[in-house]
Amino acid sequence: MKYTFLSLFLLFVNYSSFSQNRELRAYLDSKQFFAPGQGNYIEFQFQFVGSSINYLGKDGGLIGELAVQMTITKYDEVISSDAYRLSTPYMKDSIISDFYDIRRFVLKPGEYQFTLELQDLNSKNEPLKAIQNILIEDLGSSISISDIQIAEIASPGDGASPFFKSGYDIIPRLATFYPKELSTIPVYFEIYNSLQLQDSIFAIKQTVINALTNQEIEKMTRFIKLSAAEVVPFLKSVDITELTTGKYILNYTIINKNMIELSSQSYEFDRSNDIDYNYFTDELVLNPEFQKSITKDSIGYYLESLIPISESTETKNILKIVKSRNEESARKYIQLYWKRTAPENTYESWMNYKMQVQAVDKFFKSGFKSGHETDRGRVYLKYGPPTNVNQNENSTSEYPYVVWQYNRIGAFNNKKFIFYNPNLINNDFELLHSDMIGEVKNLNWPTALARRTSQGGDQFGGNSRDMFNE
Predict the structure, then answer these.
(1) What is the mean pLDDT of residues 290-318?
(2) pTM score, two decimals?
(3) Which phi-psi region, left, alpha or beta, contains residue 327 (left: φ > 0; alpha: ψ -120 to 50)?
(4) Closest Cα partner for 63 from 52, 51, 54?
(5) Which of 78, 191, 323, 446 pairs with 19 at a CA distance of 20 to 30 A?
């Protein structure tokens, strides 16, 4: 089940912490559910960054006020809307925290346009606005799964909280990044119409897939038996302690007694969990053929060229060896890296990568930077060549920019990267924005491009947004 909506986006990114006139920052997510007797509904979830809001003193503390306006239209006809004032929690002792809000709209299956406007009532800044198309799925006619909701806090509820669903109060977690300090992912979703099954018992299959290799993490596969009902709420904590740094897809699938898959839903997330690898072993024998491909004067260059395809712990090891200037350690590291990465064809994989490094150096080298040190070189080495490239280096209203589009990256489809050159004098195009998980996200990138001719960032002319959305 998929829907056309920005799963998570940052409405504004620039603000000066505790300045006199802070710029509002808010995160938005949306999830779809079904309620018997009520129908399909979409849930808009907000996380407001407390430090980005302007407060007024009240009773020895602080309180802020926001104006929120949401409109859902279809063919320019207003289908549903909501406008309200939202007071922040009362902040005591100058302790400023983020806070949440949630709004639900019952909608028939179909395509709609969602418009959001947020205004800090204690600020002179212009309101933040966002417009996005949404697609409401029909969850009520067959066996199906709601969108997966990740919980910041989950507890049994009595229905008094606006975050209440099927017996639980679910405070949503909107971030999809999980640092080493977090060892679990609390997952909530609902299963509909399982009574249509012939048996009263069915199962949910849980899998975790490495998004870049598309390989299933077999030790995390689980089968959970459930009893059929009109609505079956599912709340489970997934242990990610042993997941190494990378991008993953958590997938849940309904299966019947014959192991036939009936419906599925997935959740993409980023994990940072540094695990040390023992690359340095006395038993290693340097392969003469492998080592012949690396000349003495290029050993440091090719060692550093591994950074774009390395995890954070590996990068630390690389930088440590570079700093030590130990040639033997550098040679061991490169050979062992490829032995671990490609045990079946170590030498061939290394030579293929070496040619790619040489290619990005030829095309993307800039000033004192080697090709693999530039943003375009890093992205090329990490994800491969883009499927399509659109560039505009002659716009009078925008900085020179180029858009790379990938039909597929691992388990992800249709991912894009926009690079721009704010310096105008070299070939060093910086990554400005991407919709790839784990990469730089800047939803205000059209304004950044337009700053070439408008100091305030207002965009006049230019077709960068159309090019990115093609």
Answers:
(1) 88
(2) 0.69
(3) alpha
(4) 54
(5) 446
Token pair in block for residue 124: 């002179």
**Correct CATH for 142-153+172-273 of 2.60.40.3880, 3.30.43.10, 3.40.50.620, 3.40.630.30:** 2.60.40.3880
Tell me how far apart the alpha carbons of residues 17 and 411 are, in angstroms, rounded to a whole number: 37
The CB density around residue 316, as the number of other CB atoms within 10 Å, is: 13
Residues 6+ apart with CB under 8 A from 176: 7, 8, 150, 267, 268, 269, 270, 437
Q: What is the DSSP string of 265-281?
A: EEEEEEE----------
| Per-residue pLDDT reduced to its tens digit, 154-199 | 888 888 888 998 888 999 998 888 988 899 999 999 999 999 998 8
- Terminal alpha carbon distance of the chain: 23
Report the topology of domain 1-140.
Answer: Immunoglobulin-like (2.60.40)
Domain ranges of the chain: 1-140, 142-153+172-273, 288-360, 386-469
Say how many C-beta atoms besides its own lie within 10 A of residue 114's C-beta: 21
Residue type, 464: S
Average pLDDT over residues 191-219: 91
What SS3 string covers 315-365?
HHHHHHHHHHCCHHHHHHHHHHHHHHHCCCCHHHHHHHHHHHHHHHHHHHC
Q: Do domains 1-140 and 142-153+172-273 have the same CATH topology?
A: yes
pLDDT higher than threshold 70 for residue 462: no
Q: What average pLDDT does the segment 333-337 reach?
A: 90
8-22, 41-55, 272-286, 322-336: which has the minimum mean pLDDT? 8-22
CA–CA dist 460, 446 (Å, integer): 10
